[in-house]
Fold this protein.
Amino acid sequence: MATPQFEEGTTLDRFLMDTMRDYPHATGQFVNLMQSISLAGKLIAARVNRAGLLGMLGAVGSTNVHGEYVQRLDLYANEAFKHALEHGGHTCMIVSEEEGGPVLVPSRYRSGEYVVTFDPLDGSSNIDCNITIGSIFCIFRRLTPEGEPAELRDACRAGDEIVASGYLIFGSGTLLVLATEAGVFGFTLDPTVGEFFLSHPNLKIPKGSTYSVNEGHARRWSSGVASYVEALKERSEPWKARYVGSLVADVHRTLLKGGIFLYPATTDAPQGKLRLLYEAFPLAYVIERAGGAATDGERRLLDRSAGDIHDRTPLFIGDADEVARATRENTAAS
Ligand code: P6P
């Protein structure tokens, strides 16, 4: 009887080590950084999946720096990312939606070459309804020399300085999506072995016919956005509406199925709602690497720079032709 071949998948670690061979000057810090993000993802997934049993649902009663009610899982996710990133010797500073300012890696740990910005748990208002949520991360190389304390300019960065980005999506399964200059790759967590395995090699956004926007805000959009969305419904093949209200879920579906996601500026929020540095930038980098596009309703999103770590932005993201059309109509109406 032939020896059964052991069919093992490609783990995230193996993928990173294999990819590292293409970078002879790589120090291994990026691989270690992604392993730390993977650990944070596993810890959060374990809590999210059992939140109802651990008394981890609901709000803690306090609000964060933005005046938003903080969910128990928000706090847990933030601590999971911070502890995972500060020990690894690859990061010098972190920026989190849940922190007022940039946080230096404590001096008792080695300070590394990367700055990581993240939304530890996005869509947390959906947690109690068991709706898909996610974590979003963005990786930059520090500007200041290693060995010295990182500075604010290491955190307030341009979109085109992104080294890599991605997100974790906690839904029917747990998926880690990573975008680098090599492309976009998805890794599915096998909770029985606690490993992420390559499940979506080299993702590219297809042509689709799904639009994703909260039409409850329609009266406060520009006339250009309003006419673009109405026209989608009049196309020969009318587009379908899908809106989870959880940014990672809506953008991930757009990446896999095509179409467009919009969170436009409104008359009461002209700067938009979503965060530039740790929500829109990382997702824009993913979608561009997958052959799509992202703008702020006026210009390419990654052409922008963060003036403040908590800057907000409108977001038009998805199929490049549709994003260009929606952006054109939005600016024509302005
Ligand atoms: P709205 C969730 O609170 C979030 O920050 C994103 O995940 C999501 O895309 C957006 O807000 C939903 O906002 O105004 O449609 O409820």
Remarks:
- The longest strand covers residues 114-122.
- The chain has a mean pLDDT of 92.
- The two ends are 73 Å apart (CA to CA).
- The chain has two domains: 12-200, 210-333.
